[in-house]
Structure formats: C-alpha cells, structure tokens
Amino acid sequence: MKKRSLSLLLTAAMAATAMAGCGGGNSTAKEAPTTQAAAGNAGGEAKDQNSTPAEFSYPMAQGDKLTYWCELTTTVAANYASLGDTPFGKGWQAETGAEIEFLHPPTGQLKEQFSLILADGNLPDLMEYNWMNDYPGGPEKAIKDGVILPLNDIFEQYCPNLTAYLAENPDIDKMIKTDEGHYYVFPFIRGEEKLCNTIGLMLREDWLDELHLEVPTTIDEWHTVLTAFKEKKGAAAPYCFEYTNA
C-alpha cells in the first residue's frame, strides 16, 4: 500500500503536462500536490512538524519510477514500440521528472493480459482500463477487490482545481464516480471545442499556404483544393478516408 499511495501522488504531478485517460472510464494523469513535502509524506516518510514545506516545482529533482500498464493503440503501434518512445511519453517524463516504465499487452490480448495480472497479484502502479464496462461489477467492485483505490481523499487534499471544476459541473462529476460516491478515475475533460474532434478530414496547411488556398467548406471548394493538390503538388491520392491509408 505504501508504494501505491506514493504512486498516486507522484503521478498526480503529471497533470502539469497532460490530463491523460479518457473520461469514459480510463485512468489518467493526476493533478499535482501543492507542496513537495506533501508528496514525500504520502510515501510514509516522517514529517518535521517545525519545518516549512519547500515550494514545489517541475520537473521534480528526484522523481519516482512508476509502471504504467495500458493498451498501445494501433495508430501509435504503427510507428512506436512503446508509448514511452513517443514525443508525448518522452515529454511527459521530462516535464514531471518522473520515470515511467510503460507496459503494453500484446495487440488483441488486452482483457486476457489484464486477467493474468489480477491473478498474479503483482499490480503496476497505474492501469488504464475501461473499468465501467470491462471489469465485472464495475469500478466499485474493483475498489472492493483492492484492484484500484478510491480517489476521494486524493482529490480533496491535492486537487483543488479539479474539485472546484467538478462542483461546478455536476454532470461530469457524476460520470467519474460510482453510485456509492467513490471517485475512481482522473478524467480527460474535453473542455475546448478543438478537443471534441477526434476523427475527421485533415489537410496539409503548408500546401494550402503555398497554393494560396483557404480551408474548403463546400463541395466545390474541396474539388478545387484536391485538384490543386493532385496537379500542382503531385499527390497521387489527394484524398483518403484515413490518414493511415495515405
């Protein structure tokens, strides 16, 4: 329990870089502790009652090493063997000072590998999983089984911004806690319009600029842009359904 509690707090520091796992039930990065002393205390170290907590800043000078188990999506796997090899993974660690060992189950074996981890009992520090739909009994059962920890105390003590946001947005607050009132996930809140688009048409902006064209909004404008891409930029396939097919 000592390691798991320390992991919760040190991973909380990562929210300075990203609030990563989606609000649909996956685990995500966490909000930062307010002081370095608070993070150290969570690891079980004694606190000098007469000392003044040092100001906390990123990256941490001596970040802990954490294990993060999650599926490597096909779009990432097409170019990287691990999430830690991506610019995001590298930047996440550099910005926070925490070393992360990313663990990925083989493609197509997410649920099988998850079951094996539970049977073995050697849980990683962090697990990204669809607790609501894929864990029998849901997140409340996972908490009772000792697989994941309720985050209520962590929210209250170390996440004032998230706590205030949830108080102002009860619909989102309801999405990330069980019927018994236990928070079980740090959400990725798509608060900006640009974050609400996860799939759709993409264009090369540099080509638009070179050809003095605007982003197309009508069928005729799309025809003009795609024709220019083909004839003036030599694009063999100026349009494809998915970027992975380009």
List the helices and strands and how they pair.
Blueprint: H1 2-12, H2 36-42, E1 65-69, H3 74-77, H4 87-96, E2 99-103, H5 110-120, E3 126-127, H6 131-134, H7 138-144, H8 152-158, H9 160-168, H10 170-175, H11 205-210, H12 219-232
Parallel strand pairs: 1-2, 1-3
Helix pairs in contact: 1-2
Can you walk me through this structure?
With 246 residues, this protein is mostly helical. The protein has helices at residues 2-12, 36-42, 74-77, 87-96, 110-120, 131-134, 138-144, 152-158, 160-168, 170-175, 205-210, 219-232; strands at residues 65-69, 99-103, 126-127. The radius of gyration is 22 Å and the shape is elongated. It starts with a helix and ends in a 14-residue tail after the last helix. It has a three-stranded parallel sheet with strand order 2-1-3. Helix 1 (2-12) packs antiparallel against helix 2 (36-42). The model is unreliable at 1-50 (pLDDT under 50).
In short:
The chain is mainly α. Helix content is 39%, strand content 5%. It has twelve helices and three strands; from the N terminus they run ααβααβαβααααααα.
